């Protein structure tokens, strides 16, 4: 049981963060819809009343957990600061793949929009994707020279959609493709797509 | 009013097809969830009872309409038989873009999984996507030499996810990107991605 010790003296913010961490861990094996305040209360060993105090209602609770999961994703996939552009992108993709593997059920429910299909969920999801793709336009962090034009934005967004689809497909059925092949393909795909975009 | 004339002598199959055509047309401006048997009855000028006779229940009705819409998509985007590989793929992408524009609300609700999020809907959607990408492996119809390996399948699937994302993004906000630029980019993306995949 991944319980949260109730005796530890924590600030309300620390306690809230601890509960969100637990909520995200619970998403590794269940969809967002299957995550209930009752379940979190049981796993954390605290009262439902206290959880409602922290999170308000079920929709707000789901939103907070998913936002926390998105922040984790963005943090964990931050490219390393050393290495050439290919190495850094490769490391970031490997971290992304590991994240999807560790958070499969919850991630799948989000991507497939079955997480209640709420507007708020959609927004968090879109924001997280935008944060991930914005990195590509940040020379210091990534190193590919991607012209920041509306067409290049479409390409990079599209590449992210491709990566999401390929990673999920592979995690669900890796037959015939090694982890290294998948990561190499996704890493090579970005510069190869960007090369088709005119500089101006 | 896009009514279905009730006096025409049609076979039950023809009538059913006519009603499905109307259902698909109604999806151009509403999500799958917003499509009701009541609405179809009103637009078709026939009784709800008759519609229940044709389609059983709401879920089966939605499934039949979405399957019909997917068949339309596959038929309308069939690549022409003449022209080189680039021209044929370009024409197919142009037809896909036109389809999304004409069926925006319903298509969006399907892609975003907010169409009730049912397993049946997901399956129809996955089947349609598979039918679209399978074409790429069919030399006679497309002409790019794509090795039929598990990795190439992931790449082509990923390209389709990219196309879907880019087309929807562009239709929702075309600022700064012309229709021709979008179509050229999507057409160039496939061979450029496939080139990164080893032959074996």
Automatic annotation (TrEMBL), chains A, B:
The lineage of its organism: Bacteria, Bacillati, Actinomycetota, Actinomycetes, Propionibacteriales. Residues 13-73 form the HTH tetR-type domain. It comes from the Bacteria. Residues 36-55 bind DNA. Signal peptide: none annotated. SUPFAM superfamilies: Homeodomain-like (SSF46689). Keywords: DNA-binding, Transcription, Transcription regulation. This is TetR/AcrR family transcriptional regulator. GO terms for molecular function: DNA-binding transcription factor activity; transcription cis-regulatory region binding. It holds the Pfam family TetR_N.
